[in-house]
Design a protein that fits this description.
293 residues; alpha/beta; 8-stranded mixed beta sheet; 10 helices; 33% helix
């Protein structure tokens, strides 16, 4: 177990390669840097590493916690070719990140897209993932939910005030479920950046959304070949009102592949934000299960 008290994040970065050159992936790290028990937390399509800050502070006494900004988000570089905002590049970047961490294995917590990256990595031979938490994502992704996300992803939003941007974010993030005013403000602060002209805009490259919309499938996306190849202990957290991860998919996930454990969060859609003590506790209990105190 790591020493307590190391709850302030360290800002770091790693250089990664793509077919079009090099780019820098930024990440935040909490906990004892000597701790060999590592938890990698990866955000959703249009979010960033800071979303995991409350969870990281709570679990930093147990794990060295590493939260990257995927390419084109937060403090990471934008990619020269927007077509590279896709799974092969995300996998390559996270493999490079794990190599930088100098550890043989990691636990993985992924929300939405971050969970897809984790599932794809966990499906590989020789994977470094020893425990996998999939936050409202699975091997079948509902087409209607992809269309809903695509309707706002990639729009080039610019807001005159922070409050205006926060109001818009709260509207599109309504499926996150009930949150306090402070929690909504926290999520908005992680989503908005102030530009040189004093206006506010989302932290991500708008071309991410354009690429996302251009690649939308005509029906539900099915990735059972990846899920069935996962062998590590797996937990699925599902928003009980999720339009992206169906309950019928979750029931199949219990029976095949890694035979995941499943917990539903009432009153929440896509996706649980893991900000509340109850949701953080779900992650903690799964990751520490079977560990020596």
């Amino acid at each position: 177990m790591a020493e307590g008290g190391l709850t302030e994040p360290r800002r770091r970065s790693v250089q990664c390669a793509s077919p079009k050159g090099l780019h820098r992936i930024a990440y935040l790290e909490w906990g004892d840097p000597r701790n060999r028990d590592v938890l990698v937390c990866v955000h959703g399509l249009l979010r960033s590493a800071r979303d995991f800050e409350p969870l990281a502070r709570e679990l930093a006494s147990h794990f060295r916690i590493v939260c990257p900004d995927l390419a084109g988000r937060g403090d990471s570089d934008r990619l020269v070719d927007p077509a590279l905002y896709a799974m092969p590049q995300y996998l390559a970047d996270t493999v490079t990140l794990i190599a930088r961490l100098d550890t043989e294995s990691v636990n993985w917590l992924g929300t939405s897209l971050g969970g897809l990256v984790g599932m794809a990595l966990a499906a590989q031979a020789g994977t470094p993932i020893k425990k996998l938490v999939l936050n409202d994502i699975g091997p079948v992704i509902a087409h209607a939910a992809l269309e809903r996300i695509g309707a706002y992803a990639g729009e080039r939003h610019v807001f005159g005030t922070f409050d205006e941007g926060e109001g818009y974010m709260c509207a599109i993030a309504a499926p996150f479920g009930p949150h306090s005013e402070a929690q909504w403000r926290f999520l908005a602060e992680n989503w908005l950046r102030r530009s040189a002209d004093g206006r506010w805009q989302p932290h991500y490259d708008p071309q991410i959304g354009e690429t996302f919309r251009a690649s939308l499938p005509e029906r539900d996306m099915e990735l059972w070949h990846l899920y069935d190849a996962v062998r590590c202990p797996t937990l699925v957290i599902r928003g009980a009102q999720s339009d992206l991860l169906a309950r019928s998919t979750v029931e199949q996930m219990r029976r095949r592949g890694p035979k995941a454990s499943v917990i539903e969060i009432p009153g929440v859609g896509h996706a649980p934000t893991l900000l509340s003590a109850e949701q953080i506790g779900i992650v903690r209990e799964f990751l520490l299960q079977g560990e020596t105190p």
